Fold:
Amino acid sequence: MAEPVVAVVGAGPAGLRATQVLVEAGLCPLLIDEGHRAGGQVYRRPPPGAERPASDLYGFEAGRAQTLHDLADALAPRIAYRPGTMVWSIAKREPAGFALNCLGPQGHGRIAADRLVLATGAMDRALPFPGWTLPGVFTLGAAQIALKAQGMAIGRRVALVGAGPLLPLVAHQYAKAGATPVVVLDVTPVWAKVRAAPRLAAMPATLAKGVWYMLAGALRGQPVRAGVRAIAVEGTSRVEALAWEDARGRRHRVPCDAVAASFGLRSEAQAADLAGCRFVFEPVTRQWQPERSPEGRSSHPLVYLAGDGSGIGGADVAELQGERTALTVLADLGRPRDAAREARLDRLLARQAGFRAALEAAYPYPHHLVETIADDEIVCRCEGITAGALRRAATERDAHEMNRLKALTRAGMGRCQGRVCGHAAAEILARTLTVPVETVGRLRGQAPIKPIPLREPV
Amino acid sequence: MERLTVDVAIIGGGTAACAAAVAFRETGLTVALLEKRLCGAGASGVNFGGVRQQGRDLAELPLSQRARLLWDGLNAKLGEDVGFEATGHIKLARSEADMAVLETYARDAAEHGLALQLLGPNALRAEMPWLGSAVMGASLSPTDGQANPRVVGPAFARLARRLGAEPREHAPVRHAAHDGAGFTVEAEGVTVRSRSLVNAAGAFGGVVAGWFGEAAPVAPLSPNMVVTEPLPPLVTRSIGVVGGDVYVRQTRRGNVVLGGGRGTADVADGLARPVAATSLGAMEKTLALIPDLAHAQVIRTWSGLDGEMPDHIPVIGPSCTTPGLVHAFGFSGHGFQLGPVVGEILAELVTQGRSASPLHPFRIERFADWRGPYRSEGEIEH
Structure:
């Protein structure tokens, strides 16, 4: 019998570790990755010729980054590696398995796979605020990609705003790269961090790194200001300044030429959606994610999940999960099991889960801010749909569910297919209807996962 | 469990069903409408959005022409903009044989009062200079056009509710029967008693007809649709081709919507999905027609579930087994333009027992002797 074809989608920490386990077991998996070089977002590698020292790019994580890059290089000749390739459609294949439609350097291609390991990562969650569509406003992830992949900063004087532990880290990276982080603003309340502190202490090393980045910022004269409100980017044709109100109600304004914003992370789960996985609402981070068992199983017997694409855990968790999930694949293929290794990973993952829950509690998704979004603020930037239009559709046009809201208003119908606006639109809809956000559902995924050209590129 | 007693129960929540609910309320009848998911979200909401008379089966032309008159007044009636624009519908010929088909159809259509303009190569280039070289001629129907299918059905549903109808969404019908005194319709969460019953169940119309001992071979049909990001205005008219393997229009917003071929239909979960290879094929055919779209990006593909009859025209008319039961289903991929008028016709059938429109070709009895399964295939012409 021919070897089963296992396709791993995504070559970040989770996908690389999963691939490693499969290769160690003698399989020759497919590794399909949108990136031109493996590493994912967090350990994104510069293109050849534009490298910078790992310590500058990845800080404390330089060692991990280097290890994963070395792993990717070692795996490449032993697998079917498809870099620069987007899986844009996943369909059932008869009698079992999947047909993946890909677009890569050689144009369109079709790949047959018996089992899938989806390690598709995450992206920033956006939340509209005045001026958020001005040129010069980026997501935090985009600010990092510019730095890691291109050796560029998004501006000379950069303000960082949002919710999450990554703000001081990116501020630090920007300072190291020679840019000036002018201010770091966190909209989540101080008490949330205080309350979560004891549980965060369960992972002292990780907590220490976070504290170090904050202290480094404070030493630069850039302490993280928490509990801020009324963030607004000012400027006529591009970013000129950032204004906000501090926790005590005082107004501030600082000139800057770029803003990096992030309100937490959202799973990039469109591939799981197309593969037919069942989704569940995750109440802590308030988002729909593909259902994943601790062993890495989805609701579909031939689809496995690992990493941030199916639940936000960060890079370290992603590595552990990639390894754990691949062991499950091997078990399901009837390969000999290593119970001790499985148990060790399960223990580590359980410990990380406790830390993650505390981290999410410390930086909750600031959904309460949707009330402050003015009616004339654009929520869906692809289609130019305002918060007011969404609210009117809810109250006047019986839009009680996200796909109906999309049909009636076009929100989520544009180039990003709701990846950017979907969460905020759902929060606005739920608030308007005064129902829990999970009751308005989620936007159904459709191929292509990201835009593809009408004419095949060759 | 909710219990309703009404004059008319409607199974299905597509445009025709919701338009019927409006028409019943306008005649004073009480109405309950039962939709398995959301009103206007099935075939009514996911179709191409063509509002065309040209190219239809000649038997459909009287209905389609009557429907066309309604489209002009739809915004006013519904109280919102459904995006209807009389951009014209142009059917392209890619061979001499295609042109002969268009010439014959134009002659036949003229006898039904539909004036089409035949365009030779020169006239066509002058009119649409951006067409690719594969196109040899065309037939133009200037009064046809396009609209936004996603909003029409929901708008009719809201109007029906405003007029006092009782639409119930997420209420799939489990069974319906007639007990001599009236109909009982059992749906999830609600049971409806009614004097009359409308079967507007789309792809499931045959199942409903079967409950009343009537044969109606309906096959699932799922168009394969593709849309680009918004582009500057280019495609001035709604485009179809002889043979039907591709159709294209540009929305007011600028997106180019194109279709061709079929998705896959999962009758079990009632959902249809696009097929990647089919999408790529439709993209290639579109490029052959409109080479200037080479740099457009495709942002979404989709499909939906319609019902198709073996002769590609719907079932519209009274049941031949059960007085009080009226059918309207199996629109075979081209029901969008007819939806509003079918609502009126259903109301005529229930209140007067007959319609102002000729319905003989659509009678359900034509399938009384049908044996064996029916599988829908081939192109869906637009």
The interface with chain B takes residues 88-89, 91, 99, 101, 108, 110, 383, 397-398, 401, 403-404, 407-408, 410, 413-415, 417, 446-448, 451-456 of chain A (CB under 8 Å).
